[in-house]
Amino acid sequence: MKMESNDEMIIEKALINIAENSDMIARINEYSAEIRELLEKRKLQPSRIRIEQMSAQERYNKLKHESKKLKNAIIMLVYRAESALYGILTEYYKNASKDGRVILQEIFTSDADLVPDYKNKVHPQDEYLLQKKLANI
Question: What ranges in the chain are assigned the alpha helix state H?
Fold first, then answer.
């Protein structure tokens, strides 16, 4: 009796395994057919296309990347020039360590009225170009 129930359990497990395997085989066959269809569709697509054939949204614009590099290079140059001027400013302005960079940035961004007088060979300028009177010293 024990042998028969053991054999029955083994047979049941085998039948369950066979059913599970047949389901997996059916799914594998479905996926294989889908893969073949997709490969056929892919063969119809060209492997390379020209940029003008792409839509405007998908188009890769190398100029964006290059303009970013140019902008970063200009920013680096400006910072180096500002640092060099800051080094010179520390020799002539005692509070340069506190507000030297602020004064330089104000000089760079403020408007200047520099109209040369060619007859007298001078460059007249406003007495106070910067907003803070301390910065104009």
Answer: 2-44, 62-92, 96-109
Residue closest to 96 by CA, chosen among 85, 105, 86: 86
pTM score > 0.70 for this model? no
- Residues 6 or more apart whose CB falls under 8 angstroms from that of 95 comprise 134
Same domain, residue pair 78 and 131: yes
pLDDT surpassing 60 at residue 2: no
Question: Is 60 contained in some domain?
Answer: no
Q: Of 42, 124, 137, which is closest to residue 95 (Cα–Cα)?
A: 137
pLDDT reading at 127 higher than 60: no
37 and 79 assigned to the same domain: no
Altogether, the residues listed in the chain come to a count of 137
Residue 25 included in any domain: yes
Number of domains in the chain: 2
Let me know: does 104 contact 89? Beta carbons within 8 Å: yes
Q: Is 58 inside a domain boundary?
A: no
